[in-house]
Amino acid sequence: MRRLPREMLVRVTVLITLLVVSACASAPEVVSSDPVVAHGHELVATYCGSCHAISRTDSSRRRGAPAFRTLSERYPVSDLGEGLAEGLVVGHSDMPEIEFPAPDVEAVIAYLESIQKH
Question: Disulfide: which of 11, 44, 53, 101 matches 67 by Cβ 3.0-4.6 Å?
Fold first, then answer.
């Protein structure tokens, strides 16, 4: 496994800390009694909530970042599974590439499907 340079490790640690603090500062939302969906919400709040709207009612913090509740208007949410497992690559450099293990992919997809507008 490749080791990150110390400066990069510090930056990643600061970013993760800011994401967690940001997620905790938000009003708590009752997500689901399903532990898989609840875990998916935790992951999305941690890794995505600093830019994207991640619930049924919030607004994206970054202009142009799509609200997750509308993803199914563009494509089936389940199609994101492979990208989440292998690392999503997008057209802008601000979005980090994150690879989720299979159980986390399942949780994120379950959560995203639970919040879609129909």
Answer: 53
What is the tens place of the pLDDT at every residue in 64-105?
A: 899 999 999 998 999 989 888 888 766 566 777 888 899 999
In angstroms, the Cα distances linking 91 to 46, 47, 107 are: 21, 18, 25
Q: What is the CATH number of the domain that holds 76?
A: 1.10.760.10
Residue 24 lies in a domain: no
pTM summary value? 0.69
CB neighbours of 110 closer than 8 A, spacing ≥ 6?
A: 34, 36, 37, 40
Cβ-proximal residues to 118 (8 Å cutoff; 6+ apart), any chain: 72
In angstroms, the CA 94 to CA 73 distance is 24
Nearest to residue 77, comparing CAs of 63, 67, 86, 65? Answer: 67
Two tokens at 76?
A: 């089936």
Interatomic CA distance for residues 40 and 105, integer angstroms: 8
